[in-house]
Amino acid sequence: MDLTLKFSILLLLLGFGCYSWGSYNLSTPSVSANASPFRNDFGHCERLVKKWASSSLEQEVKEDKHTLGDLLFFLHVPRTGGRTYFHCFLRKLYYSSLECPRSYDKLRFDPRKRHCRLLVTHDDYSMMSKLPRERTSVVTILRDPIDRVFSTYEFSVEVAARFLVHPNLTSATQMARRIRSKTKGVSTLDIWPWKYLVPWMREDLFARRDGQEHRGSGDVQSSDPYNMEEVVMPLHEYIKDPIAQEIVHNGETFQVAGLTNNSYLSESHEVRHCVQRYKHLGEHVLEVAKKRLDDMLYVGLTEEHRESATMFANVVGAQVISQLGGSNSSEESAANSNSEQSYSVSDSKSDNNELRDRTPNGKESEIASPDTVEAVKGNMTVGELMEAYEDCISSLRNTQANRRTSSLKRISPANFTKQARLQVPEMVLQQIRELNHLDVELYKYAQNIFANQHKRTFGIMGVGEGMQNSTYGAGIKVLSLGATLVLLLLAFYVFVNAQRRTSKVKI
């Protein structure tokens, strides 16, 4: 064959290969949008990660980390129960006019402006580069890594399954795009990490449904909902996929460290990729994440729900009430109530059940100093806050349960429950632990912080005050036990005296 012809064929093959690779990346969710051809050799990665960690550890923190600053930044780690805290705690404390305009994807407020006291977002810790560090208090909630992976998988499927009302993927995608373009808020598909995970799972669900229809059979071979490949991606496939590797695994550590693919720091993406490539470099990231937790005002645990809620009310809620409650007036309350109604969208309502978590596109606002803030909602006590929380969480859970049930019907017989999780093989659970080794260690560390935080909070308050503020009856149990002991001692005293009198009479 002529040399020129051979060379031409080679160029064509190379061109086709490049085109195919490019096409794949364009059709795949842009998880690697921030990834560039980073140098991945170990020496470079080690220097990069150590430099980043050293710089992060040197950052100054507030002198008194236990005192609430002018701005409360709730770093919401997905699937930890943060949504409940936002609706049932923070919205009971702050008027919407005191909220920083919320966006779970991009920063949209100017720190120079006033009347912004609360920021709730899925953004990672790199958000602090945009905030006045010395005036900001950070709170977060962490969850057992295995349970969080389960929950992330289940929620990805649940939201994606809502689109199965459409005849095909094209119709579902176009409808979602039209609805989102007409709204002013932010939907689940705009929120990190769901803007990556839901489209990925949605495409997979439609492909499996089309496959069933093509085969002409609706039979499902497995009784394990986490391994029903005919209708939904099995969990063991999900955890091994590159998208899960990039976004889900060690997500708590990366978010607290400020290294997610949604980070505001340019170097974070290369640092993350180096840590993912060389496992033991993660120890440097873990050290930074632990220090960040140490410096926070409050660290809650999803598994310790009641204790976490009580402590949040006493540590965070009490300080918000004290800090903002002094400037209340009827006119401000009315104005803020109107503002709240315009900001709030009920969880139980959404357009075609495809959009949720709407947020306002109001004017940008910012951090106010204590003498310029508007009123906190009424003059509630911590006890009243806990009562309001109990009522709210019950209603919110019912709404979420109904939505979940309705969504999962579309992928029947798959039905995710705590009982069904027990069917997942130990081998898969061990893989999840290994893939989330940083989160496993960070969660253990958070448990120690939580225990010390609990001792410090209720040790300072004392039994009487803790009993008064807790709605869970821990203090009441202490009082009841004490009263019982007093009564027993009194009865014993009466009995002994009676015996003495009896003895004297006999003599």
Automatic annotation (TrEMBL):
Transmembrane spans: 478-496
Signal peptide: 1-22
Keywords annotated in UniProt: Glycoprotein, Membrane, Signal, Transferase, Transmembrane, Transmembrane helix
Ranges for region Disordered: 326-372
Localisation per UniProt entry: Membrane
Domain of life assignment: Eukaryota
InterPro entries for the chain: Heparan_SO4-6-sulfoTrfase, P-loop_NTPase
Low complexity: compositionally biased ranges: 327-344
Record's compositionally biased regions (Basic and acidic residues): 348-366
Topology class, membrane: Single-pass membrane protein
Gene3D superfamilies: P-loop containing nucleotide triphosphate hydrolases
UniProt keyword Membrane present: yes
Annotated Gene Ontology cellular component terms: membrane
UniProt GO molecular function: heparan sulfate 6-sulfotransferase activity
Entries under PANTHER family matching the protein: HEPARAN SULFATE 6-O-SULFOTRANSFERASE 3, HEPARAN-SULFATE 6-O-SULFOTRANSFERASE
UniProt protein name: Protein-tyrosine sulfotransferase
